[in-house]
Design a protein that fits this description.
single chain, mainly alpha, 4 helices
């Protein structure tokens, strides 16, 4: 039963990773690609690591550190990539309605950075 649970978690994680790859191909601009890739890969990686913990319970402390590392680095790297893309004026899809970062810069805000 434990192996079945681990296998289902790993399979679910693989589906999320596949959807992240599909999102990278299907999304219209760099910003939506970054978002699709980050959200799905974060969840997919966590599910796969939890599935591995079911197969190898003795690895659980190390796998927990991997999960913490993924939760800390994926959003930060996604944010940094998005800010860099915006800074070099990477074009957005024509259907984009609001550019909150540009609006914030027009009003003299710092966009959450110091």
């Amino acid at each position: 039963m434990i192996e079945l649970t681990g296998s289902l978690l790993i399979l679910t994680g693989a589906v999320f990773l596949f959807s992240a790859g599909l999102g990278l191909v299907r999304m219209p601009d760099a910003f939506t690609r970054i978002q699709a890739g980050t959200k799905a890969t974060t969840l997919g990686n966590i599910l796969i690591v939890v599935g591995l913990a079911f197969y190898h319970p003795e690895w659980a402390p190390k796998l927990a550190l991997v999960i913490v590392f993924v939760l800390m680095t994926n959003p930060v790297s996604s944010h940094a990539l998005s800010r860099a893309a915006h800074r070099i004026r990477t074009p957005m899809t024509p259907t984009t309605v609001t550019d909150a970062l540009a609006d914030d810069q027009k009003t003299g805000g710092t966009g959450g950075t110091a």
